[in-house]
Amino acid sequence: MDTGKSPTRMEAMVISAQPIAAVEIARIFNAPRQNVYEAWSSSEILEQWMGPGDDMETHVEAFDLRAGGAYRFRMIARRDDPATGPAGTHYVVGGRCVEIKAPERLAFTWRWLENGMDIGQSLVKIELRDFSNRTELVIVHAGLPTPEAREAHREGWEACLDCLARYLAGQQA
User: Fold this and answer.
1) Are 114 and 90 in contact (CB under 8 A)?
2) CATH (domain of 65)
């Protein structure tokens, strides 16, 4: 029942004690914010770095970067790996853009369509903040239903951001 009143201190404590089904990662990249944003907003650039490590090849099959626009990425295992399966295994993820505010914010739904974890739809938010001539990136992946899903996605995003760092370092050379 909504009484229109603010929650009491006890209610606020109970609410804040609830488990949060999200992964949050912050990184600082040695690149201007515009360059980091372009790495997320260009399908050609995404194919060069997106994926959980160098053992995966990514193909952008759809990419409509506007609120409501759809995206679809196909990641293919390059070699046999206990984490990604046999070489040639395809993983497809897709969703819709929820918010695009260049060059500071992107938000999109996330759903494994083929071979990924069966976790339903989740939400990814990316914030890019100027940090001198560097960029702080904060990624929050919310709505992950189990500790295993959160850990797998945390590991995936960490590896993905490592690939992004290598891509951006190559652009600075």
Assistant:
1) yes
2) 3.30.530.20
> CA–CA separation, 36 vs 40, rounded Å?
7
Name the residue range of residue 87's domain. Answer: 21-172
Distance CA 83, CA 29 (A): 27
Which tens digit of pLDDT belongs to each residue from 98-136?
A: 999 999 999 999 999 999 888 999 999 999 999 888 999
**Would you say residue 47 lies in a domain?**
yes
116: tokens are 């990924």
State in Å, rounded, how far the first CA of the chain is from the last one.
Answer: 59
Domain total of the chain: 1
Residue 156 falls within a domain, yes or no? yes
Residue 83 Rama label (left phi>0; alpha psi -120 to 50; beta): alpha
Is 59 domain-assigned?
yes
For residues 78 and 81, give the distance between their C-alpha atoms in angstroms, rounded to a whole number: 9
**Span 31-49, pLDDT tens digits:** 999 999 999 999 999 999 9
Tell me the residue type at 32: P
* Type and span of the H or E element at 49: helix 43-49
In which element (H, E) is residue 10 found?
helix 9-16
